[in-house]
Amino acid sequence: MIRFLLKGLLRDRSRSLLPFFTVVLGSALTVIGYSWINGAMSSMIESGARFSTGHVKVMSRAYAKEADQAPNDLALAGVGGLLDELARDHPRFDWVPRITFGGLIDIPDERGETRVQGPVAGLAIDLRNPASPERGLLNLDKAVVRGRLPEEPGEILLSDGFAARLGLDPGATATLISATMHGSLVVQNFVVAGTVRFGVAVMDRGAMIADIADIRGALDMDDSAGEILGFFRDSPYMRDEAGRAAAAFNLAHGGDGGAFAPLMVSLHEQSGLAQMLDWATQVYSLMLVCFILVMSIVLWNAGLMSSLRRYGEFGIRLALGEDHGRLYRSLIAEGVIVGFVGSVVGTALGLAVSYYLQYEGFNLGSMLKNASIIVTDVLRARVTPESYVIGFVPGLAATFLGKAVSGIGIYKRQTSRLAKEFEA
Amino acid sequence: MTPRVPRALLAMGVIGLALAVGAEAAQAPDGAAVLRRVDENMGADNKITTSEMIIRGRRGSRTVTSKSWIQGRDKSFTEYLDPPREKGTKMLKLEDQLWTYTPASDRTILIAGHMLRQSVMGSDLSYEDMMEDQRLVALYDAVIVGEERVGDRPSWVLALSSRGGDIAYFTRRIWVDKERYVVLREERFAKSGKLLKTTEVLDVQRMKERWVPTRVIFRDALKNGEGTEFLVKAMEFNAAIPDHLFTKASLR
Known about the structure:
Chain A is an alpha+beta fold and 424 residues long. Chain A has 2 domains: 2-47 and 276-423, no CATH class; 56-236, no CATH class. Chain A has 16 helices and 12 strands. A 6-stranded mixed barrel of chain A has the order 2-3-8-5-7-6. In chain A, strands 11-12 form a two-stranded antiparallel sheet. The longest helix of chain A has 41 residues, at 13-53. Chain B has a 13-stranded antiparallel sheet. In chain B, strand 10 (183-189) and strand 11 form a beta hairpin. Chain A binds chain B through residues 62, 73-74, 104, 106, 108, 112-114, 175, 177, 179-189, 220, 259-260, and chain B through 55, 57-59, 62, 85-86, 89, 100, 102, 104-110, 115, 118-123.
């Protein structure tokens, strides 16, 4: 029977081709939509991860309790040894030490007196080390607005708006007023190598990026760092993997005790992010359900329409003595065949596009006025195992349902009235 | 018939009553008078002090040594001598302004605004605390609210409330040595009533005509640390201090 139906579908393209293409299109769009929303969610997580949370983060236990305040007096000590250990025991991650700090940027006049001041949020990263992934993580090469990236000791980047407000051009001297990890006042001169755009208003109002070696010297934090961030080397954030790595690290350091023992937390465990991410996941899931629902209605409607168009054919087949049930089952079998084949082709097509968007991305750089550190200008899809099956929901199930509902009409046809219908 | 009181007896009664009131007044002067004596004891001489701050943080303790030249209540010049990282840092206070100079940056910075609330060298003292130069009696209304012993010293407990204006601590409670007029213990509160700072004097020494607290524990109540111990290692009264020291040029 299946062979017979397949022959019918192939030979009578008017009854198979349009439904087939509709299913292909619907399934492909569902796969692309799903992967795209996944990518958007992933992109949101990755932006936050690159800038502040990492996929995992190592802090001292005391620091972790007050992490929102970035208390450098509670920073990790012996960071060099810890980085070696992390690279050895957790090779799936890239590890980068960072220091966040606050203070004032003070600009002197020609007599060395304060001309203008502004509060600054600072980030110290491994900026001048060519082996460090930090430049790529923070999109620094593209985010430079004026000047260049720091190349010499004592050079910093300022947010472009902040530099403009202070009347600074690349090459100018800026004095950082902050506190050492012991709480002493620090007054340290830096040279502004360039300005960058963060893409977030609060950072663009007053932020600086400096090399971690310079800030360690300024804040008396030799071989120390507030945080060590870990990023999956070859993949985006994976919640379970990150959780397992954190649990293994904490188990190994469980006996260290003390407030300054290192503690690893996954992205989800930081600053109530789990709640926020769960909420975002729910919103995205709702959007996805709505999208699949719409696609299902479209495909269901297509199945419905194709069945109604064959009203005459069913009448003739009934008149020729074909059983109602057999006719109904053959209609559903046709729907399943078209739905399955269409879903397979549509999913393959959708996956091809999704994989392209995952690896190449959709570059908004030409549409966006400026690149920035936090807001990415390349939007990417993300293919997950679910991407391989999600297209079958509207493609197969909706087509099946459409045929099943529309086919009920077959049972309402009375053989005794068929001749009258044909006369009409 | 009303009995007549002899005039002499009446006069003795009046004198006795007056003496009793006088004696009572001598035992418990009003708060303002006590505060005035405290201000007088703290003095406004020219003096040169060498002091140590033992700062006990969450990671251990550090000792910072400094030398200060003080002229009256309005002018002071401090140079940090140790540890090496702080050596050469200088601070100049002229009335209500405070500048700091760091040799590493060769910059003189005016400490103003919220920076005044920052800790000095990581201690439990803020720049605002260092800036306090007015007499307490000019800033606060004082009421004696009790008597207690602080260690072995009988003391008055005074509740101070701000007379208004921009002031770091809206209310204070101080324990004043009844004999020496030295503040032996102090609690400083915000307007909300939250305890911000405490001080505890562990040692008082007689220097010239004054009683000087030489070992004081400052605690920032908003921190979890063990406080900062302030030790006066040497103090020279009525010292000759050249005027040029109290200029910004002397910072460099």
